[in-house]
Amino acid sequence: MFVRLAQQHRQFVRDLVMNLQALAIVLENRGYIASCYTCGSQMNSASFMVSLGDNHLIRFLVSDYGITWTEMRDERELMKLEGAEAISQLQDLANLVKYEIETFETKSKQEQIDLQAMQGIS
Q: Would you list the DSSP string of 94-120?
């Protein structure tokens, strides 16, 4: 039983690391300063960081030893969470990015419609 649980945990960490890498790419594409570094090719740990501007920094660490979310502003620690609470905060960040993308896409579509309407009037 414990061997199976250990394997499931390793797979969970690998999945989390892959998702952190993807989130870093999306954030970079949205203009944020973001990075995700892994140790080795086994993807059993990662350090994810993103700057949200105004000296507001998020650091998320994951490894076999644990998971932590640290939020800092002006080099002072505001919040530090571990485990499930840390993952929940990560989900909130991902939801924020998703909302921002959806809002941008809706705005872009509306601008295209407005432009087409204006071209039709001319």
A: HHHHHHHHHHHHHHHHHHHHHHHHHHH
Q: Model-level pTM?
A: 0.80
9-14 contacts, C-beta under 8 A, 24 or more apart: 9/64, 10/44, 10/64, 13/43, 13/44, 13/45, 13/62, 13/63, 13/64, 14/42, 14/43, 14/44
pLDDT in tens, 53-95: 889 999 999 988 899 999 999 999 999 999 999 999 999 999 9
Bridge partners, 39 (sequence order): none
Q: Which two tokens stand for residue 59?
A: 């650091």
Alpha carbon distance 45, 25 (integer Å): 17
